[in-house]
Amino acid sequence: MAGRGFGFKAGLVLAAVFALLSPSAARADAPPSPPPLTDDRGRTLTLRGWNVEDKTHRGADALTAVTERHFRDMHDQGLNFARLLVFWDDLEPRPGHYSARYLRKIERILDWAHRWRIQVVIDAHQDVFGPEFGHRGIPEWATRTDGLPFTPHPDDWFAEYFEPAVQAAFEHLYEDRDLQRAQARMWQVLARRLAHHPAVFGYDLINEPMGRRRAGEDLPAAAHRIESEQLTPMYNRIAAAIRTADRHGRLFVEPTPIVGEGLPTGLGRINDPKVVYAPHFYNATMEAGGDYDPSARWIETYENTVTRYPSAQHIPVVIGEWGPRDSSLPNMARFYGDALASLDRYSSGWAGYVWCYGGGYCAVGEDGRFQPNKEQTARPYAPAVAGRVREQGYDPAARTFRLVYDYPGSPGRPGVSELSAPPASAGWRVSVRGPAVAWPRTVPAGERGTIRVRTLPGASGRVTVTVSARG
User: Fold this and answer.
1) Residue 49: which of 358, 458, 355, 451 has the closest Cα?
2) pLDDT tens track for 108-126
3) pTM
């Protein structure tokens, strides 16, 4: 949803949806808990990072705004994850003609990511469908409008999703057999080329899908129908296509962006064992440039609602995009604290929007320093835990990260967990209780730290690791 800012009228549309889901509608009981993300060794994984993009350049210049610096700088802040935006219109500019140059550029970016130990999800991105409407995403040759009108909204880009021509284009993408096949082939090309790259963690099947609002439907009803009747079968088609080339990558599936306002998704079952639910976490008021209002309790409402689908489907959650348009407003320090605490409770990770060097949504300025309050996103965490996590979280007041997990023991190699700590002015101190040892035990001032916790040979039991700021 982020990109050029959230227009005023579009903000009102989603604010109206949010009004239907007032704080009194949020459940008083604790939300259900989605399962953790795990690797093939059974370790509990946590992903922390940012989106990486180049929406400006096309053709021969596509992706030139993405550099190795992006991944080096994220790594230097202790981060391990990136969501890389790619565009179908660049990959397949003509039907059946796939750009070898574009694929090589993607691979070069993945090489940089691997060098800096960043895991990447390949995101098939679209904004307002694609270039037919002045944006990026689905190629013009795959855009069918039925001759319906389209009026641009330069100051309100999200409102363009409700233009008749755009809604018709989504309907054709979901329903026309030849476009279904073209989309599946596009994903097969990507998966076949990238499946064996060590930086590839998975694939985000389409960014923020929308659709047609039919006569008599309000926005929540339309979103639910689109998710249930069109997105679910589309995701199953794409999953089957990707699995012809890649059996291991995770498949990230998104609801419509309306879910960001606390609306339950209508998505059904995706028939694949490695599905990740990847909603976005945006608020209409803040996207329109407003400040965070803790009394509105929209974070609590969102958490209560967004956890229902992945809990019922028993799939993990990774938030694909989040972050305010203006992080310097008076309540933004409180927002980041509240948002990160909420994300820690139910998600296996997140990608903030967006790692770039400038203002607005950019994580950092031209000098590489975090924009106001965004430094809170760089904090200690555990990328991989060899055991069942009982507790983990960061206390910003005490500047302490605490991890508690049960290690079941193994007749083979001792289990190794990994913790990450960003640079801190005084460094970090590491302590361990239980049948394990940690190395290093201190992280020097100003340095990023990777801490490995190794269980003792033949041991099992509860392990507690604490990473505290020194001084």
Assistant:
1) 355
2) 999 999 999 999 999 999 9
3) 0.95
